[in-house]
Design goal:
alpha/beta; Rossmann fold; 2 domains; 5-stranded parallel sheet; 8 helices; binds guanosine-5'-diphosphate; binds magnesium ion
C-alpha cells in the first residue's frame, strides 16, 4: 500500500546521500521532496509540513552534517520520524479472544483489498495462526478466481459458494456466515473476508456490508486505501 510512497522517499534520500558533501541547502531541497511525496500520497498538508520540518530541524541540529556519515544519519532521522508519524508501535490487529477471529476487509474498488487479504493470511500464518479466506466479492467472477489463485499460492483455503454450473452465488453475507461456520468446523482460527469495493454513497452495497458484519461478527474491520 505504501510502496509508491516508500519508493518516492527512497528516491529523495538516495539523491541526498549520493552527494559527496551534504549542505543545508541540499537538506532543505530534500525536505521539499519528502513533503511533496507525502502530499501526493494524500497525507494531510499540516502533517506533511510538520514531518518535513522536524526532519530538517534534527538533520541540521545534531551536528549531523559534520558527522562521518551524514547520509546515514539523515536516513535514520527520516526513519525515526516516519515511525513516529505512523503511530509508533504498529497497531496490532484485534483477533478477539474466542476463535475463529473474523477480519473484514473493506475499501474502494481496486484499492488492493484482495492482494492485502492474501498477504495478511500469509503474515498470520507465519505468526502461527491457521487462517482461511472468504470470497465475499461475489459480483465479478474474476474476483473469486483471483482470491482462489492467491489462496492456492499461500496454501490457505478459500471459502466461496459456486453453483454446479460454476456460477458464483451472489450472496456475500451468506458466504461470510458460512465461512465462519466452516472455520469453526475445520479448526481454522482466523477468517479473512475479502469484500467487493464499495462507496458510502451506494446504499445497497452499504446495507450488504452491514449484513456481512451482522452475520460474521468481525473482531476487526480493516479499510484498505491506495497510497
Ligand atoms: N504496487 C502495488 N500494487 C498493488 C498493491 N496491492 C494491490 N496492487 C495491485 O492493484 C490492483 C488491484 O488490487 P486488488 O487486490 O485486486 O484490489 P481490490 O479490487 O481492492 O481487491 C492489482 O493489479 C494488484 O496487483 C500494492 O501494495 N502495491
Ligand atoms: Mg478484490
Amino acid at each position: 500500500m505504501f510502496e509508491n510512497l516508500s519508493q518516492r522517499l527512497e528516491g529523495v534520500i538516495k539523491d541526498l546521500t549520493g552527494r559527496g558533501r551534504i549542505t543545508e541547502a541540499n537538506v532543505a531541497e530534500s525536505m521539499r521532496g519528502i513533503r511533496r511525496a507525502l502530499l501526493e500520497a494524500d497525507v494531510n498538508y499540516q502533517i506533511a509540513r510538520t514531518f518535513a520540518n522536524s526532519v530538517q530541524e534534527r538533520a541540521l541540529g545534531e551536528r549531523v552534517l559534520r558527522s562521518v556519515e551524514p547520509g546515514q544519519m539523515i536516513v535514520k532521522i527520516v526513519y525515526d520520524e516516519l515511525v513516529q508519524l505512523l503511530g509508533g508501535d504498529a497497531a496490532e490487529i484485534n483477533l478477539g479472544s474466542n476463535p475463529p477471529a473474523v477480519i473484514l476487509i473493506a475499501g474502494l474498488q481496486g484499492s488492493g483489498k484482495t492482494t492485502f487479504s492474501a498477504k495478511l493470511a500469509l503474515h498470520l500464518k507465519s505468526r502461527g495462526r491457521v487462517p482461511m479466506l472468504a470470497a465475499a466479492d461475489v459480483y465479478r467472477p474474476a474476483a473469486v478466481d483471483q482470491l482462489n489463485r492467491l489462496g492456492e499460492e499461500a496454501d490457505v483455503p478459500v471459502y466461496s459458494i459456486t453453483a454446479d454450473d460454476g456460477t458464483v452465488l451472489q450472496d456475500a453475507p451468506r458466504v461470510a456466515q458460512e465461512a465462519v461456520a466452516y472455520a469453526r468446523k475445520q479448526a481454522r482460527d482466523t477468517v479473512i473476508i475479502d469484500t467487493a469495493g464499495r462507496m458510502h454513497v451506494d446504499a445497497r452495497m452499504m446495507d450488504e456490508v452491514e449484513e456481512i458484519k451482522r452475520l460474521s461478527q468481525p473482531s476487526e474491520i480493516l479499510f484498505v486505501v491506495d497510497s
